[in-house]
Amino acid sequence: MSAVSVAERFDDVGASEVSPSQARAERPILEAVGLTKRFGAFTALNDVTIALMAGEFHALLGENGAGKSTLVKSMLGYYHPDGGAVVLDDREVTIANPRDARRLGIGMVYQHFTLVPAMTVLENLVMSRVDVPSVVNWAKERKALSAFLETMPLKVPLDTPVDRLSSGERQKTEILKQLYLKSRILVLDEPTSVLTPEEARQVLGFLRARASETGMAVLLITHKFSEVTAFCDRVTVLRKGAKVGEGLVADLSTKEMAALMIGERELTQAPGRDENPKSAEPVLALKGVRSGDSGTRGSLAIEELVVHGGEIVGIAGISGNGQTRLVELISGQAQKTSGEIRVKGEPYDASRATAQAMKVRCLPEEPLRNACVGRMSVSDNIAFRTFDRDASGSKIRLLDKKRMLQRAQELIEVYSIKTQGPSAPIQTLSGGNVQRAVLARELAGETDLLVAANPCFGLDFGAVADIRAQLIAARNRGTAVLLVSEDLDEIVALSDRICVMFEGRIVFECAGGDAVDTTRIGAHMAGHH
Amino acid sequence: MNADLGLWAVPLAVLGGMLRVSTPFLFVSLGECVTEKSGRINLGLEGTLVFGAMAGYGGAYLTGSPWLGVLAAGLFGVLFGLLHGFLCSLPKVNDIAVGIALMLLGTGLAFFFGKPLIQPAAPMLPAIPLGAWSDVPQVRAALEVSPLFVIGLLIAIALLFVFKRTKIGLVLRMVGDSADAARAMGYPILPVRIGATAFGGFMAGVAGAYLSLYYPGSWNEAISSGQGLIAVALVIFARWNPLACFGAALLFGGAGALGPALQSVGVTEGYYLFYAAPYVLTLLILFFTSSRTKALEGAPRELSITK
Pick from B67, B72, B30, B68: which is nearest to B54 by CA? Predict the structure, then answer.
């Protein structure tokens, strides 16, 4: 969208004290000039300048780790920048903490929520104000907030504690909070990762309309091109902590934006899918499996789920709908209350011995926490599955450190894990390399069933391409792959078959491939169909 | 002259014990409730309580007024609370370890300063005779309550109001439930926690003064029987609700009175076992309120034990 047409839209709105169209035409509402932020020796942000105009919807585009969050956090007083200045309404301001930012009318919707889980939506909204009375009259506050919600297209229940809300509802509450606080500048940190595609369109569409009506400036942090092209006026691209480009979205193609964002880099090509016939017998079969207090968030109630050898079954769903529990059941971190899990026809109890015997492997989400011991070395972590066996597979009593190191060295090369060496603590590795190390451990040797949960969450493009290629290669070798992911694009790109989970149940199933109807999947993810 | 009540003497003595023994539990647990709501645990309250007992007794003896003694005990409690609060605000300091250290420090200091106070007699706190209507002396004795008991009940009700309806209470809950959220909304974390720990110390100090100035009403080194520690468990059992703390304190008070009551009706064997009733009750309650699947409901999420 060009600047001219935005200005025209403002002219329709007209007569507020300061015409937003003028404000937009003349000067930026908020500007960061030459911001630099270092963490120790690492420069997370290098001399970045960004300007926000009133009434515009501005995208801040970049890969994970490119410094997007660091930039806004340095602007809003969460971090203290090492250099540069923040200019608000043509005046240099010092924003020492988030409360200062709020007083100046700058609101941020964080990626991790900043609502108090045990408090209701009403309590959270009231407490977010700058002027909370010392004794709160809840009847009055409820009335005022209901009236405010009437005017909003986003709906949330006022009297429900936040920990009973879905992630999508929490995200909406965070956004409503900022609108309730009448923020003039709204920063959204990847807000759509917990929303269904339909919800994302609704929320971003509403905010866009709101920005042009009221002159509010919106800064959208994202790595999704579709959001940039559909909703944003201008875009600033970050790569490795530096600004590498900016411009009107209308003037840039997706390809150009991708080139700016990724830079010169070879991405691993995903191997083609072999037309291997999938195994006749299912490798993984769940029947009537229940776990957790039924009806509560994250509990599980699956009637039937089968995964055959040589296929990838993708589990789509918004986080908190039982996917984590499903992975934990197979990895042995949670217990089922009823039902049966079978692997290759045999009952499966998720003990180390059974997992070993049945060749079940797991790549859980947040592998550093769920699948590694951070302070132990890369080679120790890689040996977790095999440290008590010798080369022929029989039990040994004392660890064979030499063999462990040698094995780790091999895998570090094969999976191109970047580490100072096999004896470096695994927590010193970057997220993508921890993921590669765990994947190397889990795929080494024969694997009949591989469970992968959000395997590419938070990784840069290079690592994502690598890991996806490994998953497809495993499938081509005949491994049954259960892929649980909150990223619908990932599910669609990798799966042979797609199941949608909602409130612990599998509510929809369809074949994968290019012909997938994502709108239908999205509707099932949201629970209406 | 005592009327012969037979076995009725036991429930009556338990009731009396409930009203009398429960007060220290009540004060410590209300204070700890506020501290824990802010996201910290202070295990040092046992030491604060013993020091409060000594300071209260000494204060009353020196000033001649038991109420000034109570105030002195509370103020020393605040000092202990502040010490805990500040120490735990240093980076990488664990509140449980600090609590245990302060428990030992408090008891040790109390014994050191309290040596000369064992002999002299301090003025005692007055009692409210709720049983004046009865002719039976045991009923009168059982229904004699301390003004501190009534004040404790009022504080419990007031805390309920504070948690629900006031800004300061909501900020406290926020800090204890999600430090991240509180920080993002610009509320201070450390001052709130230090303040909450200081309040907890004040209440534990007052509880100690109750021990030395009302019941049992003397200062010696065996004045506390672990009330300060049990009260910490009691807060968990009461699910961080001040009124439930009141109920739980009554329950523990009653259990604590069981041993002496049985002894008074002439049970000569095994009553020592009943002296252990509050401790057994603690274990049983923790056992039966545990759940494999459910997280502690209502637990402040910043608490190091529930994280």
Answer: B72
DSSP category for residue A135 = B
Written as six digits, the tokens of B216 are: 């049992």
How far is Cα A455 from Cα A445, in angstroms, rounded to an integer?
Answer: 20
Say whether residue B92 is in contact with chain A using an 8 A CB cutoff: no
What is the distance in angstroms between the Cα of B270 and the nearest Cα belonging to chain A?
44
| Gap between the Cα atoms of A495 and A327, Å rounded | 17
ipTM, two decimals: 0.85
Look at A293 and B294 and tell me if their CB atoms are within 8 Å: yes
Model confidence, pTM: 0.78
How far apart are the C-alpha atoms of A296 and A163, rounded to whole Å? 10
Query: Looking at chain B, which residue has its C-alpha nearest residue A337?
Result: B293
Sign of CA dihedral A455, A458, A462, A465: positive
State which residues form the domain around B111: 2-306
Query: Coil, helix or strand for A147?
Result: helix
User: Nearest CB to B184: which of A98, A117, A126?
Assistant: A98
Interface A-B, measured as beta-carbon pairs within 8 A, has a size of 65
Residue type, A145: L
pLDDT per position in chain B (307 positions), as tens?
Answer: 455 677 787 888 888 888 888 999 999 999 999 999 999 999 999 999 999 999 999 999 999 999 999 999 999 999 999 999 999 999 889 999 999 999 999 999 999 999 998 888 899 999 998 888 888 888 888 888 999 999 999 999 999 999 999 999 999 999 999 988 888 887 889 999 999 999 999 999 999 999 999 988 999 988 888 888 888 888 988 889 999 999 999 988 888 888 777 777 777 777 777 778 878 887 887 788 776 655 566 788 888 766 5
Q: How far apart are CA A323 and CA A321, in angstroms?
A: 6
Q: What is the rounded CA–CA span in Å between residue A251 and residue A237?
A: 14
Answer whether CATH 3.40.920.10 is correct for domain A1-96+228-264.
no
Q: Which of residues 241-280 of B touch A (CB under 8 A)?
A: none
What is the 3 state secondary structure string of A211-254? HHHHCCEEEEEECCHHHHHHHCCEEEEEECCEEEEEEEHHHCCH
Rg (Cα) of chain A, in Å, rounded?
A: 25
Domain A1-96+228-264 shares a fold with domain A282-359+446-525: yes
Cis amide leading into B216 (omega within 30): yes
Domain ranges of chain A: 1-96+228-264, 282-359+446-525
CA distance linking residue B116 with residue A508, whole number of Å? 79
B173 in contact with A, Cβ within 8 Å: yes
Angle between helices A431-443 and A401-414 in degrees, nearest 10? 110
Q: Are B130 and B145 in contact (CB under 8 A)?
A: yes
Q: Which residues contact A69 (CB under 8 A, 6 or more apart)?
A: A111, A189, A221
The reply to whether A133 touches chain B by the CB within 8 Å rule is: yes
Q: How many domains are contained in chain B?
A: 1
A135 touches chain B (CB under 8 A): yes
Is some CB atom of chain A closer than 8 A to the CB atom of B293?
yes
Tokens describing residue A210 = 């709101």
Interface test with A, best of B185, B292, B297 (most A CBs within 10 A): B185
Tell me the backbone φ, ψ of residue A481, rounded to 5 degrees.
-115, 125
- Asked if the A282-359+446-525 domain carries CATH number 3.10.170.10, the reply is no
| CB B73, CB B206: distance < 8 Å | yes
CATH number at residue B14: 1.10.3470
